[in-house]
Amino acid sequence: MRSSSASLDVRIDRLVVAHGRPYAQPRSNPYAALALQRRDEFIGRRIDIPSDELTPGQIAKTLTAATGRPVTHQEVPLTYVRTRSADLAAMFEYFTTSGLDVDVAGLRRDYPEVGWHSFAEWADTQDWTTLLAPAPARQ
Q1: What would the mean pLDDT of 15-27 be, rounded to a whole number?
Q2: Residues 35, 78: contact at Cβ < 8 Å?
Q3: Which residues contact 129 (CB under 8 A, 6 or more apart)?
Q4: What dihedral angle (degrees, nearest 10) is formed by the CA atoms of 80, 84, 90, 91?
């Protein structure tokens, strides 16, 4: 199974607190801006836009290095995921059966103005102390 970082540009613009937990608020997507600026080039095309391509094990290793805490990958059976979310199960099933076939190197070559970065680069810019802090006790 291959997995990709979820967003093209995930530099943190601000931190939002919802339900007592901080969530990273990403900046706008420069690839989307490029598509709007050069719409004739993109009309009618579907383009997956990961900025990196990693296995779940590689993601765990990267997060372990960035957070200083052990992170492991543990695959959850699709039958269990389906009991919680049919949509999430469908996405994971697609990843394991079809996978994503994205030319990451080609995207980086064809659109250098996007400012691509790796998952490790993204992980190294996060404030993990704040993001991993325990949620405040409910009153």
Answers
A1: 41
A2: no
A3: none
A4: -100
